Amino acid sequence: CVPLLVEALEWEGDDSICAACIALMNCCLQHEPAFAALLEANGVPALASCLGSKALAVREAAAGALPNASCNKDCAEALRESIVEVEASADDAPQPGGASKAQVTAFRRLADMLSSEAPDELGLRARAAGTLFNCSGFGPDNRIAMLEDGVITSVVGVLKSAAGSRPEGVMDEHDIWRPR
Questions:
Q1: Helix (H/G/I), strand (E/B), else coil: 87
Q2: Which of 41, 57, 91, 163 has a CA between 20 and 30 Å from the CA of residue 32?
Q3: CA distance 146 to 104
Q4: HEC secondary structure over 100-115
Q5: What is the chain's pLDDT, residue by residue, as a tens digit (180 residues)?
Q6: β-strands 83-87, 101-105: how paired?
Q7: β-strand partners of 83
Q8: What one-character-per-residue DSSP string does 2-55 give?
């Protein structure tokens, strides 16, 4: 069933794509045969490409499947090699032929999602963090790619922002932060 679900990621209609992502999320919950089938069907790059969707629901569904898939070393490595097409921003270098799309690594896209401050993207941020966490555990190549893609800088920025936004408080005698 995994190859059919991966094929469905290319269908028209956000609802169909979301359903396929969610089914892949469930298939890949600590299930080695599903990881192998996902790799064989090129499902990791297909899921990563969904991270570039304009539809928040599609991005959330794909980001929900990736933490489960990235629990497998080979899937985490496939994610490292995946490219995501996203809307080019004004800050991006001009694209060949004036194209409005830019290509980024999946790690970079996940870091951008993690850094989002949009209130409706909190779940997306948590899933991106989980995927990056899982991938970081599989050898130095993934961690080097994250460093090169600016993921570490993004994570540090998110942590600094979170630390700066907490209400005033004090550390008690057990080193537990308590609000005032």
A1: strand
A2: 57
A3: 12
A4: CEEEEEHHHHHHHHHC
A5: 899 999 999 998 999 999 999 999 999 888 899 999 999 999 999 999 999 999 999 999 999 999 999 999 999 999 999 999 988 765 555 545 556 779 999 999 999 998 888 878 888 999 999 999 999 999 899 999 999 999 988 888 888 777 666 556 666 676 666 666
A6: antiparallel
A7: 105
A8: HHHHHHHTTSSSHHHHHHHHHHHHHHTSS-HHHHHHHHHTTHHHHHHHHTT-S-
